[in-house]
Design brief:
The strands form two sheets. This protein has a three-stranded antiparallel beta sheet with strand order 1-2-3, with no helix packed on it. It has a two-stranded antiparallel sheet with strand order 4-5. A hairpin with a 2-residue loop joins strand 1 and strand 2. The chain has helices at residues 76-92, 114-124, 137-145; strands at residues 5-14, 17-25, 41-47, 59-65, 68-74. It is 24% helix and 26% strand. Helix 2 crosses helix 3. 7% of the residues are buried. It folds into three domains: 5-47, no CATH class; 59-92, no CATH class; 114-150, Dihydrolipoamide Transferase (Irregular). The longest helix is centred in the middle third of the chain and has 17 residues, at 76-92. With 153 residues, the protein is of the alpha+beta class.
Amino acid sequence: MPTLTPSRDASCTLPGQSFTLRLMWAHPTGVPHPRKGGNPVRKQTVELIDDLNGEIAAETVEFALDGIAYEIDLGDANAEVLRRVMAPYLEKARRQTGAKPTRGGGPSRARSDEPVKARAWARSHGITVRDRGRVPQSVLEAYRAGDPALVAA
């Protein structure tokens, strides 16, 4: 196995993250790697920085509040403090499973074939509906109930 020789380090900081990139060269015999075409072997190191105190972070903690997901890089001590502060709330909270709720809170969109069937049903009962656009709610309700009398004239 060839020995990798450090070539150059580069640092990059993004909101909440710090990266250190180290380019490494692998030319043990002075001959470029045949499959790499002589390009350097690249090793990327991601270094997490504690978002509160700027020290080395041990983990990224994910949590959500008011429908917004967050993540924060924390060292062991700060992660423990966050968990200790959150513990009384988590003990009383209900765990959410499955799909995330939508903001609309209403029923999901109609099945794609329902407007077509509702238009055909309405026309067969002498109810005028447009060829395009939304089917009026009164027509959909009458179609679902099977009662053309429910459609307001």
